[in-house]
Design a protein that fits this description.
Rossmann fold, 8-stranded mixed beta sheet, Peptidase_S33, two-stranded antiparallel ribbon, hydrolase, alpha/beta, 6 helices, Alpha/beta hydrolase, AB_hydrolase_sf
Length: 234
């Protein structure tokens, strides 16, 4: 499906119903908006695994501008702020009042930016393998996994720097990290959790996993997601 949001047409897909029967009444379930990484990947990275989340929530898969089946628009609009605003405007266009944003890798940067820029529009936040480690941590992690001849860890986009604003994050946040992630390192995930001081935060580090908790350990990851999404107020 496609919907116009500002100057672009964005592609999205849906798993699960927002309203489900409960006896003689209809009950509204939470709505999850999935944000892929890359930048430049698309929503298909979440399929078919995230069908599991449709058991307890409505799941929306979004191709961000410049990615997948959405309009490219142009490199000048490929910024964390524009991608984040697109997510909020997308939700407004579809009438999604209290979205739960789930971002993996750089999609977590988009989700976090949206929650910081629009604190009244994001009900909960899930960040999977998001925060890049320091210049010292990344090479050490690559060497631990691949030996001394492993290539240097790639540099992450330096312009993403939310650290000074994290104390203003307002929504409950679930941070998922892989113990053996050579890019979004475990120490960086712990620093992220410690920097969020104004909202409830949970951190789970999964052993024996690389990058992308939902891909590497789906059983445990979806159990944690279900608990977080369905618990009132988290």
């Amino acid at each position: 499906m496609r919907v116009r949001v500002n100057d672009v047409v964005l592609y999205f897909d849906v798993d699960g119903c927002q309203l489900v029967p409960d006896g003689a009444t209809m009950v509204e379930r939470p709505t999850i908006v999935l944000l892929h990484g890359g930048p430049g990947a698309d929503h298909s990275v979440f399929k078919p695994a995230f069908r599991a989340a449709a058991e307890f929530a409505q799941v929306l898969y979004l191709d961000q501008r410049g990615s997948g089946r959405s309009d490219r628009a142009g490199p000048g609009s490929w910024t964390w702020e524009r991608w984040a605003d697109d997510v909020v405007d997308f939700c407004d266009t579809l009438g999604i009042v209290d979205p739960i944003l789930v971002g993996t890798s750089s999609g977590g940067w988009v989700a976090l930016t949206a929650a910081l820029r629009h604190p009244d529009r994001v009900s909960k936040l899930v960040l999977d393998s998001v925060m890049p480690g320091s210049a010292q941590e990344r090479p050490a992690a690559f060497e631990r996994l691949g030996g001394v001849e492993a290539p240097e860890a790639p540099e992450m986009a330096g312009r993403f720097d939310p650290w000074a604003r994290l104390d203003r994050l307002a929504c409950p946040t679930l941070i998922l990290a892989c113990a053996d992630d050579p890019v979004a390192t475990e120490p960086a995930a712990r620093r992220l959790a410690e920097a969020i001081t104004a909202a409830p935060v949970r951190l789970h580090v999964l052993p024996g996993t690389g990058h992308g908790v939902f891909r590497e350990a789906p059983g445990e990851a979806f159990g944690l997601l279900r608990d977080f999404v369905t618990e009132p107020g988290s």
